[in-house]
Design goal:
mainly alpha; 8 helices
Length: about 220
Amino acid sequence: MSFMDILFKGGFLMIPICLCSIFALAIILERLVKYAKVKGNFGKLTDKLEPLIVGNKLGEAILLCEESKGAISRLYLIALQELQKNVHIKRSIEEEMTSSREVMDEELLVSIVPALERNLNGLDTLARGTPLLGLLGTVIGMIQVFFTLGLGGRVPDPSILAKGIGLALITTAAGLVVAIPSFFMHRYFEGRVDSLLNEAQKAKVWLISQLAKRRLLAMDDDDED
């Protein structure tokens, strides 16, 4: 039996199930590309940034973050730009650290987290809803089979009965074929989001510690002068 036979003989609900499969595949491919872009290289970036931040070379640090890829570099960029904007304002270490933390928290909440979670609800809906469409198609098909056999008034041919039931079950199988990979990919993407957010939290702590080190070194230099 060809795909077109399955599509047309499986019932009208095969059409929305096929559409669900296209949407699910599109979301999966889009998310895979997105997470590959936002990951970046956290360790390599921090190694290059540390001497620039501690050495108070904020312009070079900002340029490095602009040239780097990933959510972490974006987080650093926002904090360093805010720091450079207020570099001439005399603030305590605590005020500077609090300001940087607030800027990074806002960037995470407003920009990074929504971007990481985009379309995941849609994929979850497809994973949960497609089997229901398949089940509905099977139930409707079984009702049609038994209703047709009941009108005949004679003992049904087992081969005809088996063929009708088989066609009715096609929609359930199709729904599961779409739902199972969608479900596992959704769980995988949730794990990727959690992992990236954990990296972001570590990045915040690291940057705050480097900013504190920068200020302490600057104070030591002032004392020596």
